[in-house]
Amino acid sequence: MTYFLPEASQQTEKDRLNYQHNMMLHILGGRLGQAPVHPQAQVLDVATGTGIWAIQYAEQHPDSTVLGVDLSITKPQGLLPGNCQFQQLDAENGEWPPTQFDYIHFAHVIACFDDTKAVMKKAFDHMKPGGWIELHDPELRNIADGDSAKGTAVEEWVQLVVKGGRIVGRDMLKSAHYETWLNETGFVNVQDAKFPLPFNEWPENPKLKEVGAIYKHNLLGLVESLTKFLTLAGLSHTDAKDLKERAKRDIHNPQIRFAFAVHVVYAQKPFNGIYVHL
Ligand SMILES: C[S@@+](CC[C@H](N)C(=O)[O-])C[C@H]1O[C@@H](n2cnc3c(N)ncnc32)[C@H](O)[C@@H]1O
């Protein structure tokens, strides 16, 4: 149980996570998730961070009950909805609550677990038949065409983050495997939708330009949050600081076409004895 990013209780990380949450809402047309969950559901938000998703889900679904769990619980500001609770839990090594959930949600957990597939299996075992799992995670690989990013600092930053992550068992490309892992775990109706996250306003398409403007802001924070991976990859603190500054300058440069994809993956636990092939 090692987590390499700052705790969600730190103000700059809290701001970044809330901003990222709003970016996901923008991408998903205002929806908190894509799975067709019924309105009276028992919901678990794993690695809840600031708890913003759990609180909003509870507010929007007053007949559901929502539990947010995390290694460390950040005290949410203001009054909590009565149908929302938080609990400290190491979701990989700890014992999950005995509840059988209808919907288990994970957002931005790519740097969290030693064995994500084993955590998917835990979710499967703690879910009612017909229940839904949903994961939102980026894949740290450039999906933009052309070679404008070749040899840039931001390209080097991404390569070193991936290298540093691998050294400690955090594959920052693993969201590309979620669909396969969910199928192998026994889930059915697996959907993997990918949405582009341009690094700034470089795309011509106005909608992508808008996402780029939002993601740029989040990315500037992410460059700081992922510092540990640069030193794990072998950079000195001085070189890491220098690379981060140069990468941030590139993130502002619309001549450099860079984009990650964020995977929005959801799947259903089969009903006992029934499999409706879609
Ligand atoms: C990048 S944040 C994402 C938080 C939130 N899901 C969001 O989208 O804003 C990752 C969170 O995972 C939590 N975390 C890391 N490892 C965990 C584990 N083994 N069990 C539970 N939570 C974990 C961290 O404490 C952190 O709050």
Going by CATH, the homologous superfamily would be Vaccinia Virus protein VP39
What radius of gyration results from the CA coordinates?
19 Å
Following the backbone from N to C, one meets helices and strands in this order, namely HEHEEEHEHHEHHHE
Termini gap: 38 Å
Overall number of domains:
1
Strand content: 15-25%
Proportion of residues in helical segments = 25-40%
Tell me the CATH architecture.
3-Layer(aba) Sandwich
Helix and strand composition category: alpha/beta
Oligomer: single chain
Kindly report the CATH topology.
Rossmann fold
Cofactors and ligands: S-adenosylmethionine
The major β-sheet equals:
7 strands, mixed
Key features of this structure:
single chain; 278 residues; Rossmann fold; seven-stranded mixed beta sheet; 8 helices; 7 strands; 36% helix; 21% strand; globular
Give an account of the 3D structure.
β1 (42-46), α2 and β2 (65-70) form a beta-alpha-beta unit. Strands 3-2-1-4-5-7-6 form a seven-stranded mixed sheet. It has a single domain (11-268), classed as Rossmann fold (3-Layer(aba) Sandwich), CATH 3.40.50. With 278 residues, it is an alpha/beta fold. The chain contains eight helices and seven strands; from the N terminus they run αβαβββαβααβαααβ. The mean pLDDT is 95. It binds S-adenosylmethionine (SAM). The site of S-adenosylmethionine has 23 residues, from α1.
